[in-house]
Amino acid sequence: MANYNGYIGRTKRLFPSFLKYAGVILITILFCHHYYSNRQVTVTYSASRNASNTFPRHWKSLLQYPSTLKLVFIDEPSLNCLIGTVPIEAEQGCQQLYSAHTTRVGTYLSIEEFQKLFYEKIVKGQDGGKKTDKWSTNATIPEQNPDTTIIQYWYHENFEKSIIVSTLKKNDNLNYYKLRGARQLQSHAIRHFDDSKISLASLLDDGQCENDCNAFVPMQIKRHMAYLKAGSLMECNRETALKIPKDATWRLPNVTVPITTHLLDQYIEAGQIPFMCHGTILGWYRDCNIIPHTHDFDFCIHAHQFIPDFHKQFAKDPLHPVWRSIGRREYGFELTFYLNHGIKDHEQAKLDIFYVYEHNSTHLWTPLLMNFQKGTRVQDFLPIVDKLCTADLRGQLFLAPCNVREYLNVRYGSTWEVLNKNAGYFEKGVEYVYDGNWETDISEVLEYF
Ligand SMILES: *[C@@H]1O[C@H](CO)[C@@H](O)[C@H](O)[C@H]1NC(C)=O
Ligand SMILES: *[C@@H]1O[C@H](CO)[C@@H](O)[C@H](O)[C@H]1NC(C)=O
Ligand SMILES: *[C@@H]1O[C@H](CO)[C@@H](O)[C@H](O)[C@H]1NC(C)=O
Ligand SMILES: *[C@@H]1O[C@H](CO)[C@@H](O)[C@H](O)[C@H]1NC(C)=O
C-alpha cells in the first residue's frame, strides 16, 4: 500500500547493523547465482514404471541425440512424463505427448545450430521409403534472429505431429525466457533456471542413444511448474505510463526488485504462490513501473496456501527479514518484510504479503489493520483471482492476476488511471469497509520479529 507512515512511522527500524552488510551479501548472492548457473549436476531419477514405452515415436526419434542437440525438457507434459513423481500425472504427461498435435522442447543451441545438426543427424539419413516415418523442418520464427523452429514428423500411418523447439538464450537484463507458442500451445514466460543432467538411457531401446545420453532438466522444478501453469506474459499500459513525469524519482531502489524475487522464490518453492496486488499491480499496469512515491511492494497469496510459521525462518534473514505479522491464519493474516538494499542514507524499503480470503461468489478480501491501538480492521475487496499470468517489472518476472483491469476497477474504482502524486495510505477511489475490531489484547494478533 502506498504509505504506512501515518500509522507506523513512529516505530524504529530494526536490524540497522545488517544494512552495511547487505551490499556484500547481495554480491555474494549474485556470485553464487552465477556459479550455480554454470555448474551441471547429474541427477539420477529412477523411473518408477516401465519407461520404455512412455514416449511416442516422434519424441524418441529426437531423444536419440540429446547431447548433440543440447535438449532441455521445459514443458509440463514432457517433464511430468520424464520425472513426474505422482503416477497419474506422469502417465497423463506421457499421454499428452502422444495425443497433442504440438509439444515443446528447449535447446541450448541457437536455432541455426539446431537446424544444421538436426539435418545432419536425423533428416539426412532418413529412409526415403513409403512405409517409414519422416521428419521435416518448418519455418523458423521470427525471420530475423529466430528463437523458435517447428519441426514436423510424419507418421507413416499418415498423420502428423509437431515439436516447437525453443532456444534458451539468456538476456542478461531479464530473469526469464519468452517461449513462443503455436497451434494449441500458448506462449509462456518462464524463469531462468539452474539445470541438471538426466540420463535418457532407460527410456530408449538399447544402443539407440548417442554418447552419454544426457539431456537437461530444470533444478527449481516447483518454481518452473508454477510459471508454466500461469497464462501468458501480459503487457502493461504504455499509454498511461507516458504520463509519469520525466523527472520522477523512485523511493524504491532498483536492487529491491531482485531482493523481492529472492524472497518470493522461496514462497513459490513451498507452494505459496504470491501475485502482484494493490499498489504494485496498479504501478505495473498503469505506470509500467513501480509507483514513484511508493516505498513498499504488495503481494497477495491465497489464504488456503498459508503454511504456519513459514515466515519465521526469515526472522534473521540479512536480505529480507520479516518484521511483523498481523492477524490469524483463520482471518486477516498479513506480513511485512524489510528489503535490505544496503544503500546508505536511503529510506527503508518494505514488502507486504497479504493473505487473500474468500468473501462471496464474486469477491475476495485482504485485511488491513487500520488502527493499531484500537485494533480496528478494514477489508479491501478484489475480484475473484482464479488465473494468474506473468508480468515483467524492471526485467524481473512476477505472477499477476490475468484479469488485471477488472482487478483495478474493483480495487481502485474507475479513477485508477490517474497518477496521484499526493496519495497517502489509500490511493484514490479505493474501496474498503470497516470490519470491527480485534476483540483481544492487540499483542495476541500482532507479532514483531
Ligand atoms: C517394459 O515393457 C516392454 C514392452 O512392453 C517389455 O518387453 C519389458 O520387459 C518391460 N520391462 C520391464 C522392466 O518391465
Ligand atoms: C509450419 O507450421 C505451421 C504451424 O504448424 C503451419 O501452419 C505451416 O503450414 C507449416 N509450414 C510448412 C511450410 O510446412
Ligand atoms: C460480493 O461482495 C461485494 C463486496 O461486498 C459486492 O459488491 C458484491 O455485490 C457481492 N456479490 C454477490 C454476488 O453477492
Ligand atoms: C534502475 O533501472 C532502470 C531500468 O529498469 C534504469 O533506467 C535506471 O537507470 C536504474 N536506476 C539506477 C539508479 O540504477
TrEMBL record:
- Membrane topology, record value: Single-pass membrane protein
User: What coarse category fits the chief subcellular location reported for this protein?
Assistant: membrane
Places the protein is found: Membrane
Record flagged with keyword Cell division: no
Keywords on this record?
Membrane, Transmembrane, Transmembrane helix
GO terms for cellular component: membrane
What sections of the protein cross the membrane?
18-36
- Which superkingdom? Eukaryota
Q: What is this protein called?
A: Fukutin
Species, as recorded: Panagrellus redivivus (Microworm)
